[in-house]
């Protein structure tokens, strides 16, 4: 699903950045993508996906 319509950033891309690149915050996401830099409507949903993915990684390690 596309999270950021302005820059075509998908939920799959966000999860990939967390799982493969080790990014765990929005600052890191913004360094790798243009997410949230135009209209900003995607930021809340992107944060939810980011937090969910980081939490699932943490649970797998524990």
If you had to describe this structure to a student in words, what would you say it looks like?
The chain has about 60 residues and is mainly α. Helices cover about 60% and strands about 10% of the residues. It contains three helices and two strands; from the N terminus they run ββααα. The chain has helices spanning about 10-20, 25-30, 45-60, and strands spanning about 1-5, 10. Pfam families: Fer2_BFD (PF04324). This is Bacterioferritin-associated ferredoxin. Keywords: 2Fe-2S, Electron transport, Iron, Iron-sulfur, Metal-binding, Transport.
Nearest-angstrom radius of gyration?
11 Å
Helix content: 55-70%
Amino-to-carboxy terminus distance: 29 Å
Question: Helix and strand string, N-terminal first?
Answer: EEHHH
Strand order of the largest sheet: 1-2
Structural class: mainly alpha
Q: What is the overall number of helices?
A: 3
- What gross morphology would you assign? elongated
Model regions low in confidence, pLDDT < 50 over at least 5 residues: none
The biggest beta sheet, please? Answer: 2 strands, antiparallel
Average pLDDT works out at 93
Number of strands: 2
Share in β-strands: 5-15%
Cofactor: [2Fe-2S] cluster
Domain BFD-like [2Fe-2S]-binding: 2-52
Protein name: Bacterioferritin-associated ferredoxin
InterPro entries: BFD-associated_ferredoxin (IPR052371), BFD-like_2Fe2S-bd_dom (IPR007419), BFD-like_2Fe2S-bd_dom_sf (IPR041854)
């Amino acid at each position: 699903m596309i999270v950021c319509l302005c820059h075509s950033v998908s939920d799959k891309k966000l999860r990939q950045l967390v799982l493969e690149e080790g990014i765990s915050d929005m600052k890191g996401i913004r360094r790798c993508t243009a997410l949230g830099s135009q209209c900003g409507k995607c930021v809340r949903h992107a944060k939810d996906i980011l937090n969910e993915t980081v939490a699932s990684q943490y649970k797998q390690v524990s």
